[in-house]
Task: inverse folding
């Protein structure tokens, strides 16, 4: 039996206790029985089955030699960082769902874990319950990973699915998502895409073995999307999704997070509503697809508990993936080639020649119920060249990245 502590008894922390309680027999049968000895929280939980185990002082956890694993589900990068560091320095393994902390201090915390013969595990920090990190670090160890392309944020996927299916406005769907508890009161990290940007930075760091800082990744959220964008998506038999991508080349890692048009046959379109889907392209296996609940109490808690079991089953060893504190080589995203879709004011017939001259061969698209404008599908070009062209052009109403089929 391994004694553990949970830091933070919120949604994910209480989920950790629930997963351990519900699957106790199964987990024990696998030889790694876990027992929750303490729960650290500022609040008390009278009447809760675990209420008696709540403590308010971290030192009573740190100083208890029976505690071998800590599940850090408190979030933030202040106390969570200090507590994780102190625990690892004492040889206590830490399992976390805290992507902000993993992205910021993951390299250092993994190093401290290694120095102290324990583990810093963070499966739940990317893709919730989908075993993505374990897949990259264990399942694909014979592979050279060349590209990761995925829908890594459940909140925005819920919003985009609603906008697509119901033709609803962004503001109205966001309010509804907040009322249903899908979106946070302050939804900035999701709708401005900081959350999936941190997640792709973690995955890219694992693949490169060096730190990819999310702040160096081009990151565009979904707040500028309008009903008209979805009308064009329907006309193109495509869907708009917030896609985080990272391509690994000899020139470095090219990463970008932005709304994209995905063609109807894109495997990522299995992910609707709050679901996530991630496509990994590697050199021997080719494409492999990972799909599931990227957020939510039990899905996320399941990944944290999976890590706790791994740490408990391997005392004195360092498990999991990591990267060094050295910065990874990033490719200049302006040099990256991809296709685009651009919305332009005026009539397609009147502007076709001018638009073709600027963007080269492509084709115009008209959408139902969107008068006074048209769309143009731009074939692959360097991102920097595309952005320069639209900055210099009259009447650009919006654009999306779009790897369209070559011919209409
Ligand atoms: N806000 C995140 C999402 C939670 O919507 O995907 C899981 O990381």
Result:
């Amino acid at each position: 039996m391994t004694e553990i502590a949970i830091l933070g008894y919120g949604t994910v922390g209480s989920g950790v206790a629930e997963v351990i309680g519900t699957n106790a027999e199964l987990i024990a049968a696998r030889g790694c029985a876990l027992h929750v000895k303490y729960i650290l929280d500022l609040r008390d939980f009278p009447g809760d089955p675990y209420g008696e185990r709540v403590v308010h002082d971290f030192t009573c956890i740190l100083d208890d030699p029976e505690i071998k694993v800590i599940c850090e589900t408190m979030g933030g990068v202040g106390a969570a960082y200090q507590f994780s560091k102190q625990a690892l320095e004492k040889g206590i393994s830490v399992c976390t769902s805290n992507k902000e902390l993993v992205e910021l201090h993951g390299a250092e915390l993994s190093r401290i874990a290694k120095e102290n013969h324990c583990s810093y595990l963070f499966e739940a920090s990317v893709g919730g319950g989908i075993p993505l990190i374990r897949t990259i670090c264990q399942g694909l160890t014979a592979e050279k990973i060349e590209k990761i392309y995925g829908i890594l944020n459940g909140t925005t996927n819920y919003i985009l699915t609603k906008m697509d299916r119901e033709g609803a406005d962004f503001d109205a769907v966001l309010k509804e998502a907040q009322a249903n508890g899908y979106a946070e009161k302050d939804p900035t990290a999701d709708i401005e895409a900081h959350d999936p940007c941190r997640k792709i930075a973690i995955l890219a760091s694992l693949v490169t073995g060096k730190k990819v800082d999310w702040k160096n990744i081009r990151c565009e959220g979904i707040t500028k999307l309008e009903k008209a964008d979805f009308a064009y998506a329907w006309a193109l038999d495509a869907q708009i999704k917030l896609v985080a991508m990272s391509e690994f080349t000899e020139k470095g890692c090219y990463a970008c997070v932005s709304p994209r048009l995905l063609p109807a046959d894109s495997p990522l379109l299995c992910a609707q509503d709050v679901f996530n889907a991630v496509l990994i392209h590697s050199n021997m296996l080719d494409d492999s697809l990972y799909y599931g609940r990227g957020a939510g109490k039990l899905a996320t808690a399941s990944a944290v508990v999976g890590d706790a079991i791994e740490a408990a089953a391997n005392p004195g060893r360092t498990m999991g993936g990591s990267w060094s504190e050295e910065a990874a080589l990033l490719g200049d995203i302006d040099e990256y080639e991809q296709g685009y879709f651009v919305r332009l004011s005026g009539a397609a017939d009147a502007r076709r020649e001018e638009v073709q001259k600027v963007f080269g061969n492509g084709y115009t698209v008209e959408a139902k119920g969107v008068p006074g404008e048209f769309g143009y599908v731009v074939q692959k070009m360097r991102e920097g060249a595309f952005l320069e062209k639209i900055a210099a052009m009259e009447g650009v109403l919006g654009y999306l990245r779009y790897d369209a089929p070559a011919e209409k």
Residues 134-293 form a domain with the Dihydrodipicolinate Reductase; domain 2 fold (CATH 3.30.360.10).
